[in-house]
Design brief:
The chain is an alpha+beta fold. The chain has helices spanning 55-72, 93-103, 180-197, 218-229, 325-342, 363-371, 405-408, and strands at 7-11, 24-27, 30-37, 48-49, 52-53, 79-87, 109-114, 124-131, 136-139, 153-156, 159-162, 165-166, 205-212, 235-240, 250-257, 263-267, 282-285, 298-300, 305-310, 350-357, 380-385, 395-401, 410-414.
Length: 415
Amino acid sequence: MQGIMAHIIESKEIPIGLGPYSNAISINDFIFISGTLGFNRKKTTAGMQDGKPTLTPQIDQIFNTFKGIYKSLGTDAINLLKMNAYLSSWDQYNNLSSSLQSHLSKMPAISVNGHGLINNGFLAEIDCIGTTSNNIKVIKIPGFTHFANAPAAIQMGDYIFLSGFAGVDKNGKVVKKGDIQAQTKQALEWVKIALEQAGATPKDVVKNHTTIVDWRDFDQYNAIYAEFYGEPYPTRASIQGTLSDPDKLIEFDVIAIINQKKQYVDTAIRGQYQTNINRKNVHLDNRLTPGVAPHCAGIRTDDFISISGMVATDLDGELIGPGDIKAQTKAIMDGITYALETLGSTSDDIVKSIVSLVDWRHYEEFNKIYESYFTPPYPTRTAFQGGLAQYGLMIEIEVFAIPNAKKIGTYIIGA
């Protein structure tokens, strides 16, 4: 792969990462921060007491790493647009809320999900998208109290980042326990209302990350989801995880972009949810595998690219590499590369990868294949353990890219 000279800041203010990823990338008005864990430059996990982890010191360490990133960029702080927190145990939820409030004077849009982390000593992982711009708007839904101090959404220019919406009423009470269709409808109604507050519609959504509790609900959720968005669908990833209330069945984490033209890429193979071939702004690629859910493979706007979560299936929809993490990772990264190529981009433009692994024991082998698709410096990355939609799938990867990232971005790496 032909390298491109990138601007790299090697910082002694932050820990070296646990894999092939940059700690942060500053590009255009954005700062992408990798999923960050509570360990210091000596790789010591914060908050271990008698061999047991405690959350607050880990959150403190995570924010110390953030401060090191800010310092490397020559600033004391940034405006956080979107934060994703991944908890290994919901016993820590109240501690997480109080710890975040102690570090944040202004809450970003936020999603909190339950997933397995890289080892049992870590209780939380946090990633962020931030900005040095002050041109931001806090969006709240009148009468909606479920988010407490967090907004329904944050808008920066054309970009809108929503907090995670579940199937709850305005007071946060779960609607129709056990009814996935009712909860999906309610959650998407909140998405629609939040978008309207920002002058947007569901057609402006470029990315939907879904946390679903039970895969047996997949088909029913898809039916409601497909009707809500309609073609062409946004990019999407659906990952099995847990939510803050055991009665919650689903949550949606959404990014929308307004006032920018959109180009779509999807598979050329006919299927239930294939994007309509007659749309002028849709490019069909016969190298992309057929999807089993309502999403396109990728979307490009003026300055942003989102690629759906991809899994290792072939052109007939059959599993690639049963039990072989290397084969599955290669198939996924090839698919991502094809989608980017069709949208006029390359892997050098990737600024963020989100990786869902079924089993952490495959982490090192996954990394060997993953890193071969990049010329360093690497994108930022978040990795967690999550369930996938089909038996035998070992990994799913979704990415964000920004055109010419290696030419215009600044990469911050622990040294």
